[in-house]
Amino acid sequence: MRLHNSTEYRDTFEGGIRYKSKSFIIFIREKKTGPTRLGLTVNRKVGGAVIRNKIKRIMRDIFRLNYSQLFSQSDIVIIVNKTATYNGYDQLKQEFMNVCCRK
Fold first, then answer.
1. Alpha-carbon distance 13 to 101, whole Å?
2. What is the pLDDT of residues 39-86, one digit of tens each?
3. Rounded distance, CA 54 to CA 8, Å?
4. Which of 9, 32, 50, 75 registers the highest number of CB atoms within 10 A of its CB?
5. Nearest to 9, CA basis, from 29, 23, 25
6. Which residues 6+ apart lie within 8 Å of 18 measured at CB?
7. For position 102, what pLDDT does the model report?
8. Per-residue pLDDT averaged across 23-28, rounded?
């Protein structure tokens, strides 16, 4: 349930709708078939490898636990900002769900 190659990311960036929150930018591209998939981008400016991997684990967990409430049949790419390191799990979940459950 993940985006794997650069073509999938590029298609989502170009054909998706952009939403901005305090901690990240989210691109959502709806498609006709297939499951909802997640792609994550965490820049080195966010922090060291330990911090970047922790944020990725948190975001994947939020995606997995709330999968049924998200847009159906879409690709979601999250670009994480540096401010995400200062937020806890609950705040990141709330921001993510506010954007991804708008439908």
1. 19
2. 999 999 999 999 999 999 999 999 999 888 887 889 999 999 999 989
3. 24
4. 75
5. 29
6. 25, 26, 27
7. 58
8. 93
